[in-house]
Amino acid sequence: MCPTEILAFIENRTYDEIQIGDSAVLTRTLRPEDIQLYAIMSGDVNPTHVDAEFARSSMYREVVAHGMWGAALISTVLGTQFPGPGTVYVDQTLHFARPVTVGDTITVTITCQKKFDHNHHIILDCLCVNQDGLNVIRGTAEVLAPSEKIKRTRVAMPEFKISDKQARYDHLLSICKNLAAIPMSVAHPCDPESLKGALMARDAGLIVPTLVGPEEKIRQLAAEFDLSLDNCTIINTPHSHASAEIAVQLARDGEVDAVMKGSLHTDELMGAVIDKSTGLRTARRISHVFLMDVPTYPRPLMITDAAINIEPDLEVKVDIVQNAIDLAHMLGIVEPKVAILAAVETVNPKMRATLDAAALCKMADRGQIKGALLDGPLAFDNAVSIVAAKTKGIRSAVAGQADILVVPDIESGNMLAKQLEYLADALSAGIVLGTRVPIVLTSRADSAATRTASCAIAVVMAHAKRK
Question: 364 is in which domain, residue-wise?
Answer without folding.
Answer: 283-434
